[in-house]
# Entry
Amino acid sequence: MGVAVISNNINEAQSQHVDVLRRVLIAASGSGGHLIPAVQIAQQIKALSPGTSVEFVGVGKPLEETLVVAKGFSRHTLPLVAVKNRGIIGLISFLFTLPKALILTYKLIKKTNPDIVVGVGGYVSVLPILVARFFGIPTWIHEAELHPGSANKVLSYFADNCSLAFAESKIGGRCRPVVTGHPVRSELATVDRSSIPRGVPERLLVLGGSQGARGLDSALSELATLLAEKKLEVVHQAREDQVSKVQAAYLAAGVKAHVVSFIDNMAGAFAWCDIIVSRSGAGSVAEIASVNRPTIFVPYPFQQGTHQTDNAKTLVYAQKALLVEESRDESKRSEFVQKLREAIIELCASANFVRMKKEWYEPRGLQAANRIAEGVLAAANITRPAV
# Structure
């Protein structure tokens, strides 16, 4: 019933929201996994309703400057801190800053007077959604993971609407869910998904997430000789402090490689590569599904719960990817490297590469930002008193 209600609202909004001016406040921070989809949603809202004001609230992390402010959006900052996986120190820090953060969030909502507040995952969404609910302002949360995270599990009891990246996701509470997919960069729509220019892979893209991945940096460095044997050219996004070390390992093995700490043109990188080795955050899985590149997923070993593993399995079960687990136990490192070696060999076999490339998987992420933007604008049309 909930999905149907939101779907009807979205359809009705298509003929109404273009000329309606609204104020939208989006809460997002942390990693690119939260900020990139948030910006895609914001840009699509502006595309659908150019006069609508879209502002962000974050915690002041540098990545917000790169991904939000640089795109021309105003940003407010709040002294919010995470609690999960930070132990007693994190809990004390949270309790110490909570009163001030709550007062500042209250003042921000009063000042901006948004028609809707959107939370794109993570702890930064919690107070803005709760305060908006107190004021009777419509709210929308987005769940990127297959299994909802702690923040959205709580917010599902306060938010009005929730968009889901995965059809298999289950979320409780009072919110009305709609399956939209997870927003990816709009430029990924230009990447050729279908053609197979080479019978065997020749170009490997290594992605460790927005901050890079030390485990992948080390493992691929150890496997440089194998990459040379397979005649693979490599683009590797590494941790900033590992770039020179990884580049040196490739050079010593005779691998043609370009190692960087950040890739500005992800659409170009995806279009260039044949296969991928990647962490499996929700954003990475959505983007890889959108560009259709056979992939080896290596979930972050210190992930919260099994989020990254579960995300990866959606493409593994669709026969679009392989899964290699990296142990937290350093003594099992050689075992991990060996399994990654075997996966690379398997993926480089022509029959496997071509089969995985041809398997079908709906690129839901390419339309996700548009679907969410339409829903947000529809929900913002609800009449309410000013705060």
